[in-house]
Amino acid sequence: MKYGVKLIAASAVTLLIVSCQHNDSGNRPSVEERLKKLEATAPGVGEVMSGIQLHFSKLYFAGQAGNWKLADFELDEITENLDNAAAMRPEENGVKLGGVVDAFKQSQLTDLKRAVDNHDAEGFRKVYLESMAVCNSCHASTGRPFIVITVPTAPPVTNQRWAAPASDLIATPQDSVK
Fold first, then answer.
1. pLDDT tens digit string along 125-148?
2. Which of 29, 97, 105, 119 is the most buried (most CB within 10 A)?
3. Which domains are present in the chain?
4. Could you tell me the pTM of the whole model?
């Protein structure tokens, strides 16, 4: 999912190079035809958004368990996928998604990152709830008020440990100031 936009770009460059090579058969589809086919088979915004939802759920359980490295990783995945969604669909029902994504990254995601970096469980939960509200307002403003994201009540996957490995629990940022 996170590879959608990158895959299309890389494939387009590859196709351009290949199409520039001499071909006597004349049976190859044009670069435009190939790019259209790649775009048609690339994941859609809905799939990317489902990935974001999964990463938000994993972020929640990582934060609840105090696994701050995993939480930081999930935040990076969310940011990358939001950028992909905005690139794939720059506007939705009159809403410029790039602007919404940028504002969200500069507010809630920045605050979540700060809470993760400071190992601040209380701050994390507060900003997580704010993030869900912002997501839902975006869904409503783009014509999808029926998509309502909530705080997860069960882990999204059963084959992942949420607690931090023991080696990650040795020191925290607060320990270094004592």
1. 999 999 999 999 999 999 999 999
2. 97
3. 4-41 (no CATH), 45-166 (1.20.120)
4. 0.76
